[in-house]
Amino acid sequence: MINTNSSFGIRATLSPEALLIAEKFQRYQDNFQKGEQIYRNTLAVYAVNLYLQNLGFETDLEASNSWDCVSQTLMDTADLEINNYGKIECRPVFSGEEFIHIPAEVWFESTYCIAVEIEEIATEAKLLGFVEQATTEKVQRSQLRPLEELPALLQENINKIKLSQWLEGIFQKDWQPTEQVLASRREQLALGKTRIRKKHPPISRTKQIDLGLLLNKKSIALVVTIQPEAEDKTDVLVQVIPMGRDEYLPPGIGLNVVLESDTAEIKAREADNIIQLRFIEPPRSQFTVQISLGDAVVTENFII
C-alpha cells in the first residue's frame, strides 16, 4: 500500500510477501554482509515498484538485475525496469544515515536514483527523493530532489526512442530494417555511408511518415543510422527519402534536427530525392527530429 498523503513523505507498506522475497534472496548468500545488502536492496526495489505502479507506470521486476540471483551476487544491484523507459535505481538507506550510497557501477545504468529509507525492523519504507545522473558514491539527503518531480520526468522520457537499445538488437515495432523497407533505394542511401572503416557496423532503421493531405496520401521515409565512434561518441545520420514509386521528395519538405547544443535544418528543392543531416553526439545526449511541410509537422524524440 502507498500513502502519498503522509506528512512524513511517501510511504510504502512492506507486505509479508515482500519480506519473504527479500529473505529468500538473502538465503542464497553465504556471506552475511552480502545477504544483508541484498535483503535491503530487494525491499527498496519492492517499495519503488509499488509507488510507480500506483502512479500507473508499467514495471517489470523479472527483467530487473535486482531480481536475478546471479546479478545480485556479482553486483550491488537495486534496479527496477520500467517498460518503455529502462532502469531506475532504488538505493536503501537506514533511518538517521546522512548519505545515500550509489555504487559507481550503476551510474551509467540508470538516469534516476530514488533513495528509500528502511528501518532495521522493516514493515514500511519511506521514499525520500531522487537524484539525477549520479556522479559520486555518496549523496547527502539535502541534495535529493522532491519525489513529486520524478513522474513527469519519467513520462517525458518514456516516449523517446533509445538508440542505445538498437545496439542491443532492441527495436520499436514501427522502426523496420532499412535494407528491407527501402531495398530499391540503395543508391540514395549509399550517399550517407561513411568512408572511414569503423569497428562497429552501422545500424539503420526506417519509419514510414505520413503528412496527410499535404502529401496527397503519399508517404515518405525517415531513416536513422547510428554507428559508435571512438571516445564513446555516436555518429548519427538522419535522412528523408520518398517511398514507393515516387522518385523525388515534395519541394519544400523540411528536415530539422534539434540537438542539446545546436540546431540544423535543410529543405528539399526541386528534384531532390534525399535530404539528410549528420552529427556526432556523446552518450545520453537527446535530440529531436522534425519533418515539416507547410503547417504539418511530425516529431520524433531520441536519446543516444
Largest sheet: 7 strands, mixed
Helix content: 10-25%
Q: Return the CATH architecture of the largest domain.
A: 3-Layer(aba) Sandwich
The CATH top-level class label of the largest domain:
Alpha Beta
Rg, Cα atoms, Å: 23 Å
CATH-derived topology of the largest domain: Trna Endonuclease, Chain: A, domain 1
How much of the sequence lies in strands comes to 25-35%
Question: What does the overall shape look like?
Answer: elongated
Q: What order do the SSEs take from the amino end to the carboxyl end, as H and E?
A: EEHHEHEEEEEEHEHEHHEEEEEEEE
Strand order of the largest sheet: 1-2-8-7-5-4-3
Number of helices: 7
What is the SS-derived class?
A: alpha+beta
Low-confidence stretches: none
Total strand segments: 19
Describe the 3D structure:
- The protein folds into two domains: 2-159, Trna Endonuclease, Chain: A, domain 1; 163-303, no CATH class.
- The chain has helices spanning 16-27, 32-54, 69-74, 150-158, 163-166, 178-181, 186-190, and strands at 2-3, 10-13, 59-60, 79-82, 86-93, 99-101, 112-118, 124-132, 138-140, 161-162, 176-177, 203-210, 219-228, 234-242, 254-258, 263-267, 275-281, 286-293, 296-303.
- A hairpin with a 5-residue loop joins strand 13 and strand 14.
- The longest helix has 23 residues, at 32-54.
- The strands form four sheets. The chain has a seven-stranded mixed sheet with strand order 1-2-8-7-5-4-3, covered by helices on one side.
- It has 304 residues and is of the alpha+beta class.
- The protein starts with a strand and ends with a strand.
- It is built from seven helices and 19 strands.
- 21% of the residues lie in helices and 35% in strands.
